Amino acid sequence: MTIDDAPRDALRGGPRELLRWVATGAAVSRADLSRLSGLSPSTVSQRVEALISQGLLEEAGAGQSRGGRRPRQLAVPTGGAVVGAIDLGAHHARVGALDLSGRVVQARTLPVRIEDGPEAVLGALLNEVATLVDGDPAASRGGSATGALRGVGIGIPGPVQHSTGRIVSPSRMPGWNGFDVAAFCAGRVDVPVIVDNDANLMALGAHRTAHSELDHAVYIKAGTGIGSGVISSGRLHRGAQGSAGDISHCRVVADPAPPCTCGNAGCLEAVASGAALVTALREQGVPVSDLTGVIRLIDDGDRQATALARQAGRAVGEILAVVVNFFNPQVVAIGGRLADCEPLLASMRATLYERCLPLATQTLLIERVAAGQDLGITGAAHLVIDHVVAAA
């Protein structure tokens, strides 16, 4: 069983949790870690030494004495950007370099043409990661010393078989079906490459940033497409093949219904995604070119755009009501570009309260994802950090 597969209770005092406590400032010494974990000082010391030997922790001087020898303070190395992250979207990619605490050191947003194909798109983005790390593409082959690249996390806007890093039947990515992202990238960087769905990375980034104390959560990413990531027992839940949380092709409208890119009709993505709103407005004669234009119309109080946003919110709420009744999460949070669309959010919230059991919504938080555009790369970085810690 890997560290990602272990139950949350079994991770109490595990290497990843020790690292997280130091990174968040909850612990600054071995004594703090022993108190928080309930482990013996010798066990904590052994695990800390292993993390130090891997460059994941460092000793940062002596702390304040509490009557005995002054404890040696611990810190997560922050002297260099050592984790690369790519959050690929339909039209843009967020590329970042982060340190081992998950802090963004540098990041930038780049336009992409997904139709250019995986080799061209990923090759260019990997070069950007290397440039962000230290300005030299050759740095991606720099080994494992502190400050060198330790791994790259990549989010893909389509279904990903997480165990292999292969894309499976994406609906809006022509030429990407069956492409082995992990193998392609591994041939260009000598560090671990971890690939996942973009909604999963947003969920992981949001959970670690805002709700790490909660065990069960659902995070929706609503932009050009629509999807969700699930946190169960404090960890990302992918299911058997990696498709857990893919709500985009759940049917919400009976025939006649708008066709979906998956070949069916009436799917949530065909009704409630940003791309669906653009299409619906054009069919009503409203000259809008992209999702930015849709959001501008909604902000200006346009009657047609606002009505469509409310309909989209109801559709999302209907699907999430099933999820909430079945899974019983503590929080449902929506992110992505449509998260700031108040008519959609209000309609989604109202539908959830109407359709869910009272027990399921009694203490349920329904909110926007608090952080901004770096959630995807933050989640990607935490995937890499977790992998590095597990290897240590």
UniProtKB/TrEMBL annotation:
Instruction: Report the superkingdom from the record.
Output: Bacteria
Q: Which residues form the signal peptide?
A: none
Q: Name one Pfam family in it.
A: ROK
| Family matches, as InterPro entries | ATPase_NBD, ROK, WH-like_DNA-bd_sf, WH_DNA-bd_sf
| Family statement drawn from the similarity comment of this UniProt entry | Belongs to the ROK (NagC/XylR) family.
| The protein's name | Xylose repressor
Species name: Micromonospora noduli
Q: State the taxonomy lineage.
A: Bacteria, Bacillati, Actinomycetota, Actinomycetes, Micromonosporales
